[in-house]
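Tokens for chain A. Residues wanted.
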């Protein structure tokens, strides 16, 4: 059990993952409440063992007793926890009562995460003070856990709606500070049958193209209520709805209100870009001795597949209902000569959402002529919610010791430069805005991800928002990630009655390096007949308390 990281937290009720089963199981006594089993019989501590810190021995029961039918803890000398031996399933209801010896002793800890439930001096934010009773009075606590997600009710007040617990948890009761006594009683548990898998895919019409063709919207939902929405125009991700630390859901990717707004043009909000994401210098490259000239749509260079890139195409799509994920597969043919590229390219992009709150994007492609391919998704992330303001306080960590310096046209020079000692260094979590004023124009750079030869799929980035508690990890098979802090975003765009502005999101575009077709020292982006291009990226969402 990790120690509390909040100095003000005192009493604790916790579900602890991965504790060893050091003692044999014990029998539970039947409880009067239908379907429930009692963990305490009001007479002894059978079925429990203690763990103590601060240099004290572990595994003993010193400091614990039974008083007036309740388990009594005196933690005036050392931090302690009392653990039940049984490992519970992901579908249980746990009910208990607790009381603190004085006001400064009340608190709640679930799976090592701190919640303040009492109002006492120097305690920091008093989010749950109104739910807890004064010192000396009994509090009623219920943890209703479904598929590993807890709904927490304290004295009739729902204080957490969607808190992830994890697998193989145990019930732990205890004090983490040397501040007096704590009592527990009427501890009951009922294991529930696994709920019906609610992974689902729904299709609806989002709008129509000018020629009358329908644009479909696919909504992927997991059993925790997390949703991802993908439309067939541009294979565009228009929503990722995840909970914050209070269980409140918000869309954390920038979007527009209607298809009409997307058709007017936009800065690639959530779209799949190709054939080649990012820039190709001089809008040309040589492959097998043949020079190919591309559309020059960026100051004499080529970017994001040209003026009519994949983000402006209407993709075909079909839902995929899997036992472990809700998914939609989209496919597109890019004809030979498209924007100047050689070969008929058949592209498939699959979005899938699982019950671990992971959104995965798979990209595959085949060709009938040698060509170059570099696909990515251009989502703009704001973990506080789209339209909530800038992301300069978001903390970013990149698994990259090097980046690619670029010239004034944003074309890599070919150098691979260390980030150490520069404002480009995010090897440790840093607020995005902490050094952005030292980067002319803001961040718009490709980072070279650290890769082990045997680990093609690896961590690229971690992002978290202190205000909401939402977190996102990005894992990928790609060798690089383009970090763009929406420097040029203006109030021309917005949704839900809110306008966007500079730095109102950050893009983490996993991809091959810009201008790779003209930089032989960079990883190759060449695809040949008989080969299959396959890259994938996973966005893993969570909550930090």
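Reply:
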């Amino acid at each position: 059990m990790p120690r509390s990281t909040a100095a003000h937290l005192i009493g604790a009720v916790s579900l602890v993952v991965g504790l060893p089963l050091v003692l044999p199981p014990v029998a539970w006594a039947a409880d009067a409440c239908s379907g429930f089993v009692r963990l305490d019989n009001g007479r002894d501590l059978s079925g429990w063992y203690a763990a103590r810190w601060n240099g004290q021995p572990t595994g003993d029961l010193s400091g614990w007793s039974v008083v007036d039918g309740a388990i009594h803890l005196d933690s005036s000398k050392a931090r302690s926890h009392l653990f039940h031996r049984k490992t519970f399933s992901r579908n249980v209801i746990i009910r208990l009562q607790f009381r603190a010896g004085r006001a400064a002793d009340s608190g709640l800890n679930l799976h090592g995460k701190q919640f303040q439930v009492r109002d006492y001096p120097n305690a920091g934010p008093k989010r749950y003070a109104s739910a807890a009773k004064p010192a000396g009075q009994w509090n009623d606590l219920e943890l209703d856990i479904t598929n590993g997600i807890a709904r927490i009710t304290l004295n009739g007040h729902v204080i957490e709606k969607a808190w992830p617990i994890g697998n193989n948890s145990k019930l732990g009761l205890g004090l983490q500070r040397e501040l007096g006594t704590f009592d527990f009683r009427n501890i009951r548990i009922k294991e529930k049958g696994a709920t019906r898998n609610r992974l689902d895919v729904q299709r609806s019409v989002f709008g129509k193209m000018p020629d009358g063709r329908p644009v479909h919207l696919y909504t992927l939902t997991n059993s925790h209520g997390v949703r991802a929405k993908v439309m067939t125009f541009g294979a565009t991700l228009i929503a990722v709805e995840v909970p914050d630390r209070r269980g409140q859901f918000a869309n954390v990717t920038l979007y527009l209100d209607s298809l009409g707004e997307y058709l007017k043009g936009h800065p690639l909000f959530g779209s799949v870009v190709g054939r080649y994401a990012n820039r190709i210098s001089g809008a040309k490259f040589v492959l097998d001795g043949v020079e190919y000239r591309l559309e020059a749509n960026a100051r004499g260079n080529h970017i994001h597949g040209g003026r009519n890139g994949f983000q402006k195409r209407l993709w075909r799509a079909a839902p995929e209902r899997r036992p472990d994920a809700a998914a939609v597969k989209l496919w597109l043919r890019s004809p030979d000569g498209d924007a100047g590229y050689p070969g008929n390219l058949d592209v498939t992009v699959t979005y899938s959402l699982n019950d671990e709150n992971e959104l995965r994007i798979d990209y595959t492609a085949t060709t009938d002529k040698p060509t170059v391919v570099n696909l990515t998704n251009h989502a703009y992330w704001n973990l506080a919610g789209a339209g909530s303001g800038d992301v300069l306080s978001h903390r970013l960590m990149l698994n990259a010791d090097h980046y690619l310096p670029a010239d004034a046209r944003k074309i890599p020079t070919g150098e691979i430069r260390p980030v150490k000692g520069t404002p480009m260094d995010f090897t440790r979590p840093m607020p995005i805005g902490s050094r952005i004023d030292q980067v002319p124009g803001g961040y718009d750079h490709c980072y070279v991800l650290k890769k082990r030869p045997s680990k093609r799929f690896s961590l690229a980035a971690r992002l978290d928002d202190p205000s909401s508690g939402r977190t996102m990890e990005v894992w990928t098979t790609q060798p690089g990630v383009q970090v763009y802090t929406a420097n040029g975003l203006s109030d021309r765009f917005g949704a839900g009655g809110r306008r966007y502005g500079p730095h109102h999101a950050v893009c983490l575009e996993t991809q091959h390096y810009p201008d790779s077709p003209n930089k032989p020292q960079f990883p190759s982006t060449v695809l040949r007949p008989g080969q299959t291009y396959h890259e994938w990226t996973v966005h893993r969402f969570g909550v930090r308390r």
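The chain has one helix and 44 strands. The two ends are 16 Å apart (CA to CA).
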